[in-house]
Amino acid sequence: MKNIQTVSTARLRRVAITPEDSPRVRELMTFGRDQLWDVAVLGQAPMPQEAIRLNNWLIIPAHQDNTEIPDHAMERVQAIFTAGFRPKGFVLVHEAPMMLSAPETNQTQLRTPWTLNLETTEKVINGLSFGVSAIAKLMVGTVTLAVAAGSLILPGLLLAGAVLIDPILIAVTEDNYWIEIDRWLV
User: Fold this and answer.
1) Residue 157 lies in a domain
2) Rg over CA atoms, the chain
3) Inside any domain, residue 48
4) Domains in the chain: how many in total?
5) What is the Cα 15 distance to its own chain's centre?
6) What is the per-residue pLDDT across 159-168, written as a single tens digit (0 to 9) for each?
7) How far apart are CA 167 and CA 183, in angstroms?
8) Rounded CA gap, 167 and 186, in Å?
9) How far apart are CA 95 and CA 98, in angstroms?
10) pLDDT (tens digit, 9 = 90+) per residue, 83-138?
C-alpha cells in the first residue's frame, strides 16, 4: 500500500438514485439471493483508485490488497462473472480503528530535598511493612479471582476480538452501488 487517503463521510453523501431504481443492483441482488448468499446494498460511492481510510474502516481496491481471499469468496466472484455480471471492480473493507495517541508526558520533574529523623524513619518503615503485607494478601486474593474469572471471560474476549477483524468483499456496480458479496474472519 503506497498511499492511504482519508475521506470524510460528508464527501460521500450525495443525492442519487435508490438501489431499487438501478436494474444492475436489482439483478445482482436477485442473483446473490438465488445463490443463498447474504448480500446487502451498503451504499453508493465511486470506485476508489487507491486505499482510503473512512473513519474506522480501511477501503482497498481488491487488486491492491494483499489479504488472502478464501476459496468460497473467489467462487462467488467467479459465479458473478459466469452469470454475465461485470462490476466496475471489487473492494475489500477492513475494520481499522484509529490508533490511540500516546499519553502526554511531563518532562519537568520537581525535586525537593528532605530528610527524616531516626524516630520518623522507624515509623515509616513499620507502616510500610504493614502496608506491604496487606497489599500482598490482597494481591494473592485478586490473582486467584482473576485466574478463575479469566478462564471464563478470556475465551469470550478472544472470540469477540476475532469478529472485529473481518474483511468484507464488495462488488462496485457500474452505477457505483456497493454490494456486499462475502465476509470472513481472518
Assistant:
1) no
2) 28
3) yes
4) 1
5) 28
6) 444 344 579 9
7) 6
8) 7
9) 10
10) 999 999 999 999 887 664 444 545 444 444 555 556 655 655 666 565 556 566 66
